[in-house]
Amino acid sequence: MRKDPPFDLQYFHSTLLLSHAPPSVLIVNAASALREANEKLYALRFPELCPETIVTGSVQKLVDFRDRVGGRIVVKPIHDAGGRGVFRITAGDENADAILDAATAQETRRVVGQRYLPQVRDGDKRIILVEGRPVGAVLRVPQPGELRANLHVGGSPVRTSLSDRDLEICGRIGPVLSGLGVVFAGIDVIGDYLTEINITSPTGIREIHRIDGVRLETNILDAVERRLR
Questions:
Q1: Phi/psi at 219 (nearest 5 deg)?
Q2: What share of the chain is helix, strand, coil (3-state, %, to 5)?
Q3: What pLDDT does residue 143 have?
Q4: Per the residue annotation, which of 124, 131, 140, 219 is the catalytic one?
């Protein structure tokens, strides 16, 4: 099952229907994992790998969190993707409360707040995992004057390699994802920090092919065939 977020009620119902398939039917990725491993929230199961994070619908708590972690945070919707609804909130910005009020829909919707990582200017690294093992990566570099590095909003794909810290992160989360039935995932790393785990519809394969000449779809389908056997 592969569909771009948002994760809505229709999507949720689809995962429930897929869960009725008999054990002989392989669902990629597993329906239970699609339900439970939210792109923004599942990474918080590994707090030692993530930047300081808060999940709340309170504007005041987000402001207090911003001030506590150095005066700059990034606020993201829980359910969306592709850079939609992502804001940087900076101390001294007179629009901060108004932005947070809109982001939380007048405090009726929770959002994710994370300490701003200035290393994002150098790029947000997407690492592709197949059966929990890293098989390729691409660095997404934001346009000048743009906060977001997402390819959907103009981020430039750049060749990259995996650092020791990247491998440490993959080594921690990879076996957990594989055990959940996640054959194909994409994780986001900024600097030394894990920021998201994407299993709904990970992007980056085509960019890695253009840059490095490798076809990661082969790795994915080989993994599917191994599971079927």
A1: -60, -40
A2: 40, 20, 40
A3: 82
A4: 140
Same domain, 216 and 145: yes
Per DSSP, the residues of 124-155 read EEEEEEETTEEEEEEEEEPPTT-S---GGGTP
Tally of CB atoms within 10 A around 111: 24
Among the candidates 70, 89, 116, a domain finishes at: 116
Q: Which of 66, 115, 125, 126 is catalytic?
A: 126
Q: What is the pLDDT of residues 145-190, one digit of tens each?
A: 777 667 766 678 899 999 999 999 999 999 999 999 999 999 999 9
What is the pLDDT, as a whole number, of residue 98? 95
40 is catalytic: yes
Say which of 131, 196, 207, 219 is annotated catalytic.
196
76 catalytically annotated: yes
Pair 65, 16 in one domain:
no
What is the structure's pLDDT at 225?
95
Residue of 66, 115, 125, 148 with catalytic role: 148
- Catalytic, 140? Answer yes
Beta-strand runs (E) in the chain? 53-56, 72-77, 87-90, 111-115, 124-130, 133-141, 156-158, 184-190, 193-198
* Structural domain includes residue 62: yes
Known catalytic residue at 110: no
Q: Among 145, 172, 155, which Cα is nearest to 207's?
A: 155
- Is 227 in the active site? no
